[in-house]
């Protein structure tokens, strides 16, 4: 639609062919605009400082500065900018480090184009998204959380359900709709979950589960 706010993207990848392909694919969507591209993490960081995109599509293995270090610097200085890891790697060490750095989404490069576009839009709305393969690995373990005594107070079955849906990148409204509870009740459950596992946000909740082997990736 004329005058509609476009989602401004920076594509960081050391393969020029992949950057060019992403630009052409994303250009087909009226609400997306690739405003810059970077061949390495250092350039991604430099361009982010100058251009301030809404979202950075970040590869991991790049010269000069890798995607993990670039993400760490970007999120430290510009927490409002979303970073989507777009990589071939689904190794635990990469997932752990990128979640710790504050990525909003973790996507594998074999993802369907429509799924990537949906993930970009979701991150722009402030949501967290995992590639289906990553999400599947994580959610199976989240469902066993109720059987674990995380501290002195285990999660209830309902809290485990809520945490599972958080891991799938669902918003509070979507969680409420799926579990047939109000958004206020969802928020109360999330507050209790965060208190019990001693975290302050959704990303930290996922990180805690990975770090403590509650979620095995």
From TrEMBL:
Q: Where are the 4-aspartylphosphate residues found in this chain?
A: 59
Q: What positions does the domain Response regulatory occupy?
A: 8-124
The entry's keywords: DNA-binding, Phosphoprotein, Transcription, Transcription regulation
List, alphabetically, the Pfam families matched.
GerE, Response_reg
Identify the SMART domains for this entry. Answer: HTH_LUXR, REC
Q: Which PROSITE patterns match?
A: HTH_LUXR_1, HTH_LUXR_2, RESPONSE_REGULATORY
Per the record, the GO terms for biological process are: phosphorelay signal transduction system; regulation of DNA-templated transcription
Q: Where is the HTH luxR-type domain?
A: 148-213
Q: Which residues form the signal peptide?
A: none
GO MF entries: DNA binding
- Quote the InterPro entries the UniProt record gives: CheY-like_superfamily, NreC/VraR/RcsB-like_REC, Sig_transdc_resp-reg_C-effctor, Sig_transdc_resp-reg_receiver, Tscrpt_reg_LuxR_C, WalR-like
Tell me which domain of life the UniProt entry assigns to the organism this sequence originates from.
Bacteria
Q: Which PANTHER family match?
A: TRANSCRIPTIONAL REGULATORY PROTEIN DEGU (PTHR43214:SF39), TWO-COMPONENT RESPONSE REGULATOR (PTHR43214)
This protein's name: Two component transcriptional regulator, LuxR family
The lineage, from the top, is:
Bacteria, Bacillati, Bacillota, Dethiobacteria, Dethiobacterales
